[in-house]
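Researcher: Quick one. two chains, 343 residues in total.
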Amino acid sequence: MEEPNLNYILKLSAKSVTFKEKIIGIIKNELPVEADAYYRCLRFNKIKEASECVHKIKHKISIYGMENSFYIAQEYENNLREGNLALQKEFEETLFIIRNFTNQL
Amino acid sequence: MKCIIIDDELMSRAIITELITTRTTFTLAAEFDSAIQAIKYLNKKKVDLIFLDIHMPDFNGFDFIDTLKDKVNIVLVTSDKEFAINAFEYHNVVDYLVKPITKERFDKTIQKIAILNNAIVTTKKLTQEKISDIVEPSFYINIGKRLIKIDANSILYFQAKGDYVAIKTENNNYTVHNSLKKIESKLPIGMFFKSHRSYMININKIIDIEENTVLIGKDVLPVSRRNRPELMKNLKLL
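Model:
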């Protein structure tokens, strides 16, 4: 399974600690909210709304440099738009990993 | 250049803001998390460039472009590569950035905008130039309390001398308090060439070119090594 990393954020922030902290702060605030919203949508069978949540989470996956997981999320987002839950397990595994990683930052 | 960001994701806006502020001289006028808010803003204010997310709830980036009255350059920003094909249907879309945006790719976009802007400025200059200026280019210089008319065709070259510029014409020499850069912007396009940091020469008056010098009238003037290839392009070589 792919591991998240901060390479992109570090490269972009160069020597700016403020920027790095800002981005990590945004992810820490938004990711739990977006993950909760995603699970809530699935629980209430709002599949298309769930695809919007996946879209936002997908960007965070890419920020963490998880290329393969990003493509899975993208495919899953497309599936959800068509009312199809294929790749749900794979996406949720990634979501679990990035949530843990974010909590440790 | 004044720009705005429209993206519903705070993280994307923060990244684009960082790139704009650290890697360009652009002024970030505002940022919006919805296209509707941006439309209200643009009804009152003008901007030169918009970084626009395509995938936004309710009102997406393409819907937004359709509402624009003025021609504003747009850089599309999205994580969905497949939208790129649609982007080419819009003449004001100058580039397409895929998230996550890297510094290198962002720099390419900025270079593209700079090239495009120069082309627009040149075209504007050409269309604004009066026909009379093209047929008989001339301008006035301020010497003491007099304004003297100078026919651009009679000028051999300009030479920067500190805060002053010496103008050498076929019959006279003048010195004006000005800079080469300011003078260059008022000259007929294609007639003069900045051959060196301190010299701007009338291309039509070149008698001879030898290595890094040109002969104009009786004066031998320097041509910087960097500017020589461009000068050669401007000459009619048989």
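The interface with chain A takes residues 9-12, 14-15, 18-19, 22, 55, 57, 79-80, 99-100, 102-103 of chain B (CB under 8 Å).
Researcher: Thanks, that's what I needed.
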